[in-house]
Amino acid sequence: MQAVEHYIETFVPEHYDLFLDLSRETKTFSGKVTITGQAKSDRISLHQKRLGDCFC
Question: Model's pTM, two decimal places?
């Protein structure tokens, strides 16, 4: 099995910009996250299981 690197080993975050749009009527939310920082590697991998799924 291939070893999994921790995110902090390849990328050091410096700033988080988070926007959430909450709806009390429909009890749902959506949003956007922007993370800026310093890459410590030429390649950064993100875990994408269920990324973009709707949890409505």
Answer: 0.56
| DSSP one-letter code for 7 | G
Spatial distance between the Cα atoms of 42 and 30, rounded to a whole number of angstroms: 31
- Give pLDDT tens digits along the chain (56 positions): 667 667 777 888 999 999 999 999 998 989 999 999 998 888 877 766 666 665 54
CA distance 38 to 14: 7
Opening angle at CA 55, ends 53 and 56, nearest 5: 125
Amino acid at 49: K
